[in-house]
Amino acid sequence: MVLMGAIGLFLGRYVKNINDYFVGDNSIPPLGGAISNFMSLFSTFVFVAYAGIAYEYGLVAILILWSSVPPALIAAKYFAHRWRRAGLITPMQFLETRYNAPVRQILSWGGIGFKILDSLVRLYSIGLFIAAATPLSLETAILVSGLIVVLYTVLGGIWAVVVTDAVQFVILIFSTLILLPLSIKAVGGLDNLTLTIPAHFTFFNGPKGTPLFLLGYYVMVLIKYNGNWAFIQRFYSVRDEAAGAKMGLITAAFFFVFPVVFLIPAIAARSYIPDLADKEMAYVSMCLRLLPEGIMGVMIAAMFAATMSALSATYNVVAGVLTEDIYKRLISPYALGRNLLLVARGSTFLIGILVTFGALYIGNFGGAFEANKLFTGLFAIPMSIPLLMGILYRRPKPWGALVTIVAGIIIGLILNQDKSISWEAATLLQIVICILIMVVSGWVPSKNPTYEARVNTFFKKLATPISAAEKPVVNEVFMRSLKYLFAIAMSTTAVLFLTMSLPSITKLSGQLSFGAGTICLIGAGILWVQAKSKDKKAISALPEPEAITYQQN
C-alpha cells in the first residue's frame, strides 16, 4: 500500500492540468492500457462471486468469465478508432454534440450513480476476502480498504492508475500462479479431480450453463463493458487509432488466458473442501488451507491490488465526468487550470468516500454476484445503449436516447419484480426493447437543420484519421522516469515475494514464491539497464558546449 501511494505521489508531480489527470496527454502505451483495462474490469469480485460459481458448477464459471473476450475484440475493431478520433476528456463529452445537452446531463448523472453502485459491489467483495483471511470484521475491512484506495487515487490521475495497475498486475498474476499448482497437487492432480467431480468439467453444468442464460449474460457484458467509462477512457488516452486497436486485442488475450488461472483453484475446492458453507469463500478457503502465513499475506495484497485497480479507475473517470461534464458545463464554464484540477481531486475524494460507506450495505442485496447482476440489468444496459449507438450510427435521435434510458430502467424494474420471468429472459427483452426504441427514433426524420449539421460534422470527424500533428510528442524524459519507477516497483515486489518465501522455502509454496521474486528481480534489472541506456543516449545526443576563449587586454 505504501508503494502504491508513493507511485501516486511521484506521478502527481507531472499532473499540471485535467488533460494530464484524465487523459494522460494521450500517451498511454497499448500494453499499459491493456493491463489497466484488464485490472480495471477485474477485481476481488472475480475471486468471490465467480469463485462461488466455480465451486458449485465448475468450468461454466470460466465460460461465464470469458464473456469479457468479445467486448474487447469488438472494441478493437469497431470502437477504438472512433473513441480516439472523438478527441475526448470524458466519455460523456461527445453526447451534447451527438444528441443534446439533456442527454449528456442525464447520462452523466445516471452514469455516476451506476458507477457508484458498481463500485460498492467491488469494495464489498474485497471486504469479504479480507474479513475471511484476517481477524478484521467485514465492516472494518471495508472501511480500511476503501479509505486507502481513496487516498492513493486522489494523487496522480490516470498515469497513477495505469502505472499502479501494471505493478498490481504483476503481484496478482504471480500470486495466483502460486496457488494454481498447489491446488492441483492438493487434490491429487487434474486427472483425479476430473474423476472426483466429472460434472464440474463440462462447460454447461448447472442453471448458469444453459444457452439462454449464457446468451443473456454475454450480450449484457458486451454492452456493459463497451459502455464502461474506464474501458472507453483507455481507448481515447492512447496515441492513435492503431494503438487503440492493439490495446483491445491485448486486452482480449488477457481476458481469455487468466480466468483459467483464477478459477481452477475454486473448482478444486469442491473436492478438497466439499462441505464449504459459503460458496463465495471457495478461493479464500483454498488460500487459507494451502498458503503459509507469509505468502497468504502476499495473496491478500494481490486481492487488494485487483480491487484497488478497479476502484481507482472508476474514481478517476467518474471524477472526470463530474469535473468536465457537470462542474465546467453547468457551474463554472470558464474554469481553467488549477481550479479544474482542484475540483477533479475533490470529486475523486467525494466519490471514494460515498463508495466506502455505501459498501457496508451491499450484503442486503443477496451477495456480490446477485447485486452486480441486478444493478447492471437496471442501469448499465439502458444507459450504455444510447452511448454506444450514438457513436456507431448517425440516425438515432436525442428523443430516442431519452426514451431508451427512462423506458429501459422502468422495464428493468418491472421485469426484476416479476418472479415468473427468468433473469436471462428479462435481460434479453430489456436489451431488445432499448435497441428498438433507438432504431425507431432513427426512422423519424429530424426537422432541426442545426442538429443535422452538427451530427454530420461529428461523424465526419470520426471518419477522419488522426493527423501527424494531432498525435502527441512522446516526452522521453518522462518515459525514462517511468522505466526507473517500474524498476523500483518491481524490485520492491521482488523483495516482497522473496522475503515471504523464506519461512516456507522447503515447501512448494515457498519455492514458487522465491521463483516469482527472482523473475521480478530480473525484470527490474532489465528495466533499470534500459533506462540507463536511454539516459546515456540522450546525453550523448546533446550538442557539445562551445569552447570559451578569453582575450587578453
Descriptive account of the structure:
The chain has 553 residues and is mostly helical. It folds into two domains: 2-465, Sodium/glucose cotransporter; 475-534. The chain has 22 helices and no strands. Helix 4 crosses helix 8 and helix 21 packs antiparallel against helix 22 (508-540). It is globular, with a radius of gyration of 24 Å. GO terms for molecular function: transmembrane transporter activity. Keywords: Membrane, Transmembrane, Transmembrane helix, Transport. One of its GO terms (cellular component) is plasma membrane. It is a multi-pass membrane protein. It holds the Pfam family SSF.
Structural descriptors:
0% strand, 2 domains, Sodium/glucose cotransporter, single chain, mainly alpha, globular, 553 residues
In short:
By secondary structure, this protein is an all-alpha fold. It has helices at 2-12, 18-23, 30-41, 44-57, 60-65, 69-86, 95-98, 101-133, 138-186, 190-196, 211-226, 229-236, 241-272, 282-290, 293-331, 337-358, 368-392, 398-417, 423-443, 449-462, 476-501, 508-540. The longest helix has 49 residues, at 138-186.
What is the CATH domain class of the largest domain?
Mainly Alpha
Give me the secondary-structure category. mainly alpha
What overall form do the CA principal axes indicate?
globular
State mean pLDDT (0 to 100 scale): 85
Number of strands: 0
Report the biggest beta sheet as strand number plus sense, adding barrel if it closes.
none
Q: At CATH's second level, what is the architecture of the largest domain?
A: Up-down Bundle
Radius of gyration: 24 Å
Q: State which percent range the strand residues make up.
A: under 5%
Termini separation comes to: 65 Å
Number of domain units: 2
Count of helical regions? 22
User: Could you estimate the helical fraction of the residues in percent?
Assistant: over 70%
What is the succession of H and E elements? Answer: HHHHHHHHHHHHHHHHHHHHHH
What is the third-level CATH name, the topology of the largest domain? Sodium/glucose cotransporter
CATH superfamily of the largest domain: Sodium/glucose cotransporter
Organism: Adhaeribacter arboris
InterPro entries: Na/Glc_symporter_sf, Na/solute_symporter, Sodium:Solute_Symporter
Main location: membrane
Subcellular location: Membrane
